[in-house]
Task: structure prediction
Amino acid sequence: MIDPFAELPGYVLRRASVSMMEAFKARLAPIGLRYTESTVLLLIGANAGIRQSDLVTALAIQRANMTPLVARLVARGLVSKLRLDGRSQGLVLTDKGQDLCTTARTVVNAHEADVIAQIPLDMRDKVLPVLRALWQAAEEVSN
Amino acid sequence: MIDPFAELPGYVLRRASVSMMEAFKARLAPIGLRYTESTVLLLIGANAGIRQSDLVTALAIQRANMTPLVARLVARGLVSKLRLDGRSQGLVLTDKGQDLCTTARTVVNAHEADVIAQIPLDMRDKVLPVLRALWQAAEEVSN
DNA sequence: TATTGTTATACTCTATAACTATA
DNA sequence: TATAGTTATAGAGTATAACAATA
Result:
């Protein structure tokens, strides 16, 4: 069979990403987190008091989709909202959220370490630069 | 704001992929193709007579999801099914499908060329090797 | 007027199970 | 028994528009 995609960076990028997400999600499931939830939890954990609108910008998740996402974390007692002013709320982790955030970080680190371990030694220092260049290139091409 | 994801290949891989897909989809929309449809069309175009089960393997799309996808292309007069045996059908492009496939290839090539043009010269030959290594690494980690 | 957050809704892709028909 | 394809259904993520309340 002829593979018309083998030489296409865009296609290989996508397949790599999907495969990576699959592996990562499999590690998140046992600790009760979806992918998007984990990114929100980690970002609040690293930035106590962050507002939803900052999460939206940093994670490129739409406002309208962030609302139920955060609401789920609040409902589970992982995050609480602090009134900042009449329209903004600062998000912080509860103790329970802190614990889960620490666990999530462990999971992330294990995942990333296992991935890196599979990358040939001479390529490892190229991984982040190449990915950042691709990200930037895609953004440029979009404009 | 502290960005806990900046050094994580898995995260940057995903953001790059999402951004790349967004740019690509924007180019496909004017020719009336979704992303998954374009991959199916291109793969049939490169492999006349291919069976659905081969598409499923090559593109990592589930059987159950391939059925309506192919059905849409057939309904649009882009693809036709040839009986191979009682349970398999060979897929081929119609003339209309051929034309659209050619157009899609042009779109893909323009997209990839524009992306590559944004990658610093000294990094270009690292892009595919790094992406393939990441794809493979993710597959390994999943097992 | 612009920003923050919410609600409602629809779309795309994906995931799973059960089913028919055929090899 | 295993394979090819289908049907039905649910889930996760995303996209858009309209809205209230506040800066």
